[in-house]
Amino acid sequence: MAAQHKYALLVLFLVFGAFVTDFANASTFTAWRGPGCTRARDVYGCGCNNIRYHGGFSFDYTGQPARFYSRSGCGGRVLATFRQDRRRCASFPYGSIRIFC
Predict the structure, then answer these.
(1) Where does the secretion signal sit in this chain (predicted)?
(2) Would you list the DSSP string of 7-57?
(3) pTM to 2 decimals?
C-alpha cells in the first residue's frame, strides 16, 4: 500500500513538472513603450493579455500561436494570428493578445 502511494506521488510530480516546463517554454510577446523597440517593455505569456505599450513588438514563437485583437479583453476583431517569430519596431494597432498554451 505504501509503495502504491509513493508511486502515485511520483507520477503526479512528473506530470506537474512537465506541465510547468511547458508553460516556461511557451511563446512570448514583448511590447515596447518607445518607438524603435526602446524604453520600457512588457512581456506577455499564455492566455489573454491587454497590451499597454505600442512602440514596437517582438513575438518569440516556440509552438504556441497568438491571436491579436482590436480591443482589450481579447474583444473586437481578430487583426492577426502569428505562427512564427515576428518583430516590428514601429507602432501597431493591437489592443490585446491571446497566446494559446
Answers:
(1) 1-26
(2) HHHHHHHHHHHHHHHHHHTS-EEEEEEETTTEEEEEEE-SEEEE----SEE
(3) 0.76
